[in-house]
Amino acid sequence: MNPLIMIPARMAATRLPNKPLADIGGLPMIVRAYRQAEQSGLPVVVAAGDPEIVEAVEAAGGRAVLTDPALPSGSDRIRAAVDAIDPEGDFDAVINVQGDMPFASPGLATACAAVLHGEPACDIATLVAAEADVSDRTNPDVVKAVLALGEAERQGRALYFTRSTLYGDAPIWRHIGVYGYRRDALNRFCAAPQSPLERREKLEQLRALEMGMQIWAAAIDTAPISVDNPADLEAARRIAAG
After folding, report:
1. Which pick of 8, 106, 170, 189 has the fewest CB atoms within 10 Å?
2. What distance in Å separates the CA atoms of residue 22 and residue 17, rounded to the nearest whole number?
3. pTM for this structure?
4. Which residues, given as ranges, of the chain have pLDDT below 50?
5. What is the largest CA-CA distance in the chain?
6. Nearest alpha-carbon partner for 210 in 180, 189, 187
């Protein structure tokens, strides 16, 4: 396979405006995310919704593509960006790494690429991690992945994703928002309208499942910190400070 990492980013975050340019230890958050992704050895491009993001990435020596700020989702943004830089389709897989994960291990992208390579039936690859606390089970902000996964297995097909509390006492899998798309799957996904379950749960991956696509997930040991609000940003700054 010939995968490419795309990092979607836009300034208009509801809970933390101008989030991509938030300073974390002397670097904009999007630059930290870019440099982490670069360590995977795969080519990396930022799919930016605003010129300020392009300027920040290019000033740090990275590559960014300006996309329409009106695009409705990160998936649409990465599709627009990859079509702009690779109209011939040389990259047959796109790994969507979130720009608000400034310390994400570069192994997350390669783990998604490995799932796509190893599972021919997989249209979209993603990641999960074990719950951090029992309170995750009832927290609607924690997206749970329901997997066809044996007790000793570390990779399996995703049957559903939900914000709801899951029945039973077994531990849950927390979904990590890193995706690997086969190029044709990304095109089909973005061309389809929002689905009923997607609107209900506010989880776009449910559109893929309702379309009959297969999503496979690999388990990782630790979930990376995600910066969604001012408290998360302060936590990220503490990590950067050592």
Report:
1. 170
2. 9
3. 0.93
4. none
5. 51
6. 189
